[in-house]
């Protein structure tokens, strides 16, 4: 398989998109113009190579859905038209149709909207890539596998997460597990936070899998950001670089209250993280001596845990140990990657002032079929 | 250690990045800016050309596609990793020569026509109809299904190749149509010197060992050259190729919106197996897989297979003892193998032979090089072979190369033998002069003679004549 695979996870939480489209926001962006720019980006990915494959997953409140997959294209093709490329038309109409269908089916009887199933969609995307890898190996009558060698992996599989929701601290463990699976599958995770606050988990996901994370400041330039930062597959990124992060928020969420902690306490046996010293580890049931607990409690910062406290007690060395908080672990990426010396541009340097054409160039097929 | 890692990564990457540019691009670069600009008016052409570009070039085009104003060279250059600057510069160079990119007073911008068309291609819209006007479903006569189209394309294509491979062997395979024969002769793949039966030439033999995708483009490039001579409008020919490449397999299209030139091309393309028509006069046509995969790089054309999916991944098992087992029942593949293998047995699904000195020499005499044989064997190796590294046994590879060197052991060169010098001094005097000119190929002072190359002869003769006349 020569082409590169791209799985896109799209956050389609109606309430967040509503907030994003409000006029009091700097650069308001509503869902329909987002989707038309997204479709242009997806088409650009398919356009790049005949063999490129694509899957799109939607994260709706409380459920995640496969919106489009080039491995099993829908059987009914849209009516032909002399002015558009058949493959693009198929992608556009399928995705639009599915999004509209699922948004209409949403249950809006309760006031409280369930959080977006972003992690579910990410997991599905990874499972999907795993399936492709297995099929690919099976189809090449893989001699490597029978020889006990490492099975072949797809070239350059990627996941791109387009998120508008804040971090859900409850999903810390599933996110981390997804990151580890992605590392094992050699999948690069790219992430783009389009609306809302910076997310800690997506930053870590991108950093740990060698991907790119962008917090979108100029929402009117979305398509240009997508094209320059997320279109090139990893092999091209060694020639034309993509924006890198200066700072990564490495904070973890505790297992007990699912809070993101600055200073945490780690079980020396199973490495579970807690926001306060506990007598018994809730994961592995290890009991800690009462003396250690007392000493740790005395050493705890007096401020509430959520605020960024800088107080450190260097004497804490016995179980449980302290974890690294944010202040001690903010390695800047250029130092670690070989891309460093060129003084590569930061995500802020994507030029946004002259791309007004992008937003107006709506994807006519896709939007047409929805209305 | 980290430096080592990055080095190996770089090597791997440089292989993928420095792929040879597509065969069509040099041809396009030769065209004038006006005809390219006409070509870029069609969104489907822009999309197809975009696909033929290399990965870095594609990314550059995409980066600039949605920008309304020009961007300065330094801003663009800031995105390039310093060590890979060469790829970036090459990419800029190729894009400029294709007139896709303009560099004007330190600013980069896309050709406006190209930009508008590619935007139309990606977002849809416009009214150019460049992706072909699909025909309404006809209940009475349903379009040919995909399998039928594959079969048709395969049959047409293999007829051409089989005709080439068996010319001069005394067999009488089906002759392809006159148009195809003419194209084969024009392109120098077959010669027509001895009587009426065309003979395959050494370029033709080399052609047979290429991948199907490259073969197809070779022929189409020849077709383009021929179109120039036939006074056909090149832009319309190219537009039609690109339109075909963006069409959907298994769908019928109307011929009504085609230009006169393009309608005339239908006959030729039908002969090559790129399109299918119910009747020659039919107002509908269906592109075959040969046409719709024109801009892909995948070798998964129906021609590369025999017929089943298993042979798609190769069918040749080669052993260290020069024995070759080819799991195929395809007469074309057998005939191609016969070019450099001496075949021993044939079974319904298996051909057994061995690579011998004589069989390889026969191939070398036909103009096929050792590298081509090895690359053919590599390309069509059976999946079972793929677990070996290197894939082709080293002994066999080396021996094939040695056989090629053996052929080049004797080199002939035209020249003159100078002999019967009156004295040793005369001999040495002339020899020294010839040595200064660097034209001496062989010398023997005992016999007072030396051999000089053809180019040096007039100088040496003049020198001797002057010397004689001077002495007299």
TrEMBL record, chain A:
Name where it mostly resides.
nucleus
Localization, per the record, is: Nucleus
Give the UniProt record's GO annotations in the biological process aspect: nucleotide-excision repair; regulation of DNA-templated transcription
Q: Where are the transmembrane segments?
A: none
Entry keyword set: DNA damage, DNA repair, Metal-binding, Nucleus, Transcription, Transcription regulation, Zinc, Zinc-finger
Region annotated Disordered, chain positions: 301-371
Q: Provide one Gene Ontology cellular component.
A: transcription factor TFIIH holo complex
Annotated coiled-coil positions are: none
Please explain the role this protein plays, according to its UniProt record: Component of the general transcription and DNA repair factor IIH (TFIIH) core complex, which is involved in general and transcription-coupled nucleotide excision repair (NER) of damaged DNA and, when complexed to TFIIK, in RNA transcription by RNA polymerase II. In NER, TFIIH acts by opening DNA around the lesion to allow the excision of the damaged oligonucleotide and its replacement by a new DNA fragment. In transcription, TFIIH has an essential role in transcription initiation.
Listed under subunit, the entry gives: Component of the 7-subunit TFIIH core complex composed of XPB/SSL2, XPD/RAD3, SSL1, TFB1, TFB2, TFB4 and TFB5, which is active in NER. The core complex associates with the 3-subunit CTD-kinase module TFIIK composed of CCL1, KIN28 and TFB3 to form the 10-subunit holoenzyme (holo-TFIIH) active in transcription.
Q: What is this protein called?
A: General transcription and DNA repair factor IIH subunit TFB4
Print the organism lineage: Eukaryota, Fungi, Dikarya, Basidiomycota, Agaricomycotina
UniProtKB/TrEMBL annotation, chain B:
Q: What is its main location?
A: nucleus
Cross-referenced InterPro entries, in alphabetical order?
Answer: Tfb2_C, TFIIH_p52/Tfb2
Q: Name one GO molecular function term.
A: ATPase activator activity
Any single biological process term in GO: nucleotide-excision repair
What are its GO cellular component terms?
transcription factor TFIIH core complex; transcription factor TFIIH holo complex
Gene3D superfamilies hit by this protein: 3.30.70.2610
Return the Pfam families for the record.
Tfb2, Tfb2_C
Q: Which NCBIfam families match?
A: tfb2
Role of this protein: Component of the general transcription and DNA repair factor IIH (TFIIH) core complex, which is involved in general and transcription-coupled nucleotide excision repair (NER) of damaged DNA and, when complexed to TFIIK, in RNA transcription by RNA polymerase II. In NER, TFIIH acts by opening DNA around the lesion to allow the excision of the damaged oligonucleotide and its replacement by a new DNA fragment. In transcription, TFIIH has an essential role in transcription initiation. Component of the general transcription and DNA repair factor IIH (TFIIH) core complex which is involved in general and transcription-coupled nucleotide excision repair (NER) of damaged DNA.
State the name under which the record lists this protein.
RNA polymerase II transcription factor B subunit 2
Q: State the organism named in the record.
A: Lentinula raphanica
């Amino acid at each position: 398989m020569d082409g590169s695979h791209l799985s896109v996870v799209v956050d389609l939480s109606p309430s967040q998109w509503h907030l994003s489209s409000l006029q009091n926001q700097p650069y308001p962006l509503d869902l329909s113009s987002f989707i038309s720019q997204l479709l242009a980006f997806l088409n650009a990915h398919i356009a790049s190579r005949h063999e490129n494959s694509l899957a799109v997953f939607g994260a709706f409140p409380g459920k995640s859905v496969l919106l489009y997959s080039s491995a099993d294209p829908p059987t009914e093709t849209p009516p032909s038209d002399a002015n558009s490329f058949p493959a693009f038309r198929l992608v556009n109409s399928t995705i639009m149709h599915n999004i509209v269908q699922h948004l209409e089916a949403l249950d809006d009887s309760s006031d409280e909207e369930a959080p977006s199933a972003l992690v579910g969609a990410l997991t599905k995307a990874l499972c999907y890539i795993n399936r492709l890898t297995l099929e690919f190996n099976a189809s090449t009558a893989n001699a490597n596998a029978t020889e006990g060698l490492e099975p072949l992996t797809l070239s350059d599989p990627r996941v791109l997460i387009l998120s508008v929701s804040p971090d859900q601290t409850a999903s810390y463990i599933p996110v981390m597990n997804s990151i580890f699976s992605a590392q094992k599958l050699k999948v690069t995770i790219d992430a783009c936070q389009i609306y809302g606050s910076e997310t800690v988990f997506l930053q870590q996901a991108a950093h740990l899998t060698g991907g790119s994370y962008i917090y979108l400041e100029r929402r009117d330039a979305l398509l240009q950001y997508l094209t320059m930062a997320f279109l090139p597959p990893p092999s091209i990124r060694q020639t034309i670089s993509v924006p890198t992060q200066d700072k990564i928020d490495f904070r973890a969420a505790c297992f007990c209250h699912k809070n993101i902690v600055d200073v945490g306490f780690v079980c020396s046996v199973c490495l579970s993280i807690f926001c306060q010293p506990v007598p018994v580890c809730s994961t592995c049931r290890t009991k800690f001596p009462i003396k250690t607990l007392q000493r740790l409690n005395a050493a705890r910062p007096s401020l509430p845990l959520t605020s960024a406290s800088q107080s450190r007690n260097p004497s804490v060395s016995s179980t449980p140990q302290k974890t690294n908080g944010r202040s001690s672990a903010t390695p800047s990426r250029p130092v670690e990657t070989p891309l460093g010396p060129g003084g590569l541009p930061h995500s802020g340097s994507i030029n946004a002032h002259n791309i007004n054409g992008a937003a107006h160039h709506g994807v006519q097929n896709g939007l047409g079929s929805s209305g | 250690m980290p430096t080592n890692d990055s080095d190996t990564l770089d090597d791997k990457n440089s292989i993928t990045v420095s792929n040879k540019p597509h065969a069509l691009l040099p041809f396009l670069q030769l065209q004038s800016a006006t005809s390219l600009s006409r070509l870029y008016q069609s969104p489907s052409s822009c999309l197809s050309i975009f696909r033929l570009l290399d990965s870095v070039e594609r990314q550059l085009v995409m980066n600039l596609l949605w920008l309304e104003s020009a961007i300065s060279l330094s801003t663009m250059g800031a995105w390039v990793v310093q060590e890979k600057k060469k790829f970036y510069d090459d990419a800029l160079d190729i894009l400029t020569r294709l007139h896709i990119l303009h560099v004007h007073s330190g600013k980069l911008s896309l050709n406006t026509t190209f930009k508008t068309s590619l935007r139309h291609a990606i977002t849809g819209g416009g009214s150019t109809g460049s992706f072909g006007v699909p025909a309404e479903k006809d209940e009475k006569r349903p379009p040919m299904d995909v399998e039928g189209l594959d079969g048709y394309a395969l049959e047409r294509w293999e007829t051409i190749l089989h005709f080439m491979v068996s010319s001069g062997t005394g067999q009488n395979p089906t002759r392809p149509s006159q148009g195809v024969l003419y194209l084969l002769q024009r392109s120098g793949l077959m010669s027509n010197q001895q009587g009426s039966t065309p003979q395959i030439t050494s370029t033709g033999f080399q052609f047979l060992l290429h991948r199907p995708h490259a073969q197809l483009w070779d022929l189409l490039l020849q077709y383009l050259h021929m179109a120039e001579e036939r006074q056909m409008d090149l832009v319309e020919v190219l537009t039609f190729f690109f339109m075909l490449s963006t069409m959907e397999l298994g769908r019928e299209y109307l011929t009504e919106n085609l230009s006169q030139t393009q309608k005339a091309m239908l006959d030729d393309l039908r002969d090559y197996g790129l399109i299918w028509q119910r009747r020659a006069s039919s107002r509908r046509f269906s592109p075959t897989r040969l046409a719709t995969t024109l801009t892909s790089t995948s070798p998964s054309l129906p021609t590369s297979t025999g017929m089943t999916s298993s042979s798609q991944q190769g069918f040749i098992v080669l052993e260290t003892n020069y024995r070759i087992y080819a799991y195929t029942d395809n007469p074309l593949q057998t005939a191609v193998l016969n070019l450099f293998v001496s075949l021993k047995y044939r079974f319904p699904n298996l051909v057994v032979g061995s690579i011998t000195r004589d069989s390889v020499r026969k191939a070398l005499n036909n103009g096929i090089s050792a590298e081509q044989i090895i690359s053919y064997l590599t390309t069509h190796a059976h999946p079972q072979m793929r677990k070996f590294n290197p894939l082709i046994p080293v002994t066999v590879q080396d021996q094939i190369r040695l056989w090629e060197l053996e052929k080049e052991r004797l080199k002939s060169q035209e020249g003159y033998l100078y002999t019967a010098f009156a004295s040793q001094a005369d001999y040495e005097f002339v020899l020294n002069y010839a040595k200064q000119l660097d034209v001496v190929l062989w010398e023997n002072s005992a016999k007072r003679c030396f051999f000089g190359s053809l180019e040096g002869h007039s100088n040496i003769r003049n020198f001797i004549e002057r010397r004689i006349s001077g002495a007299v």
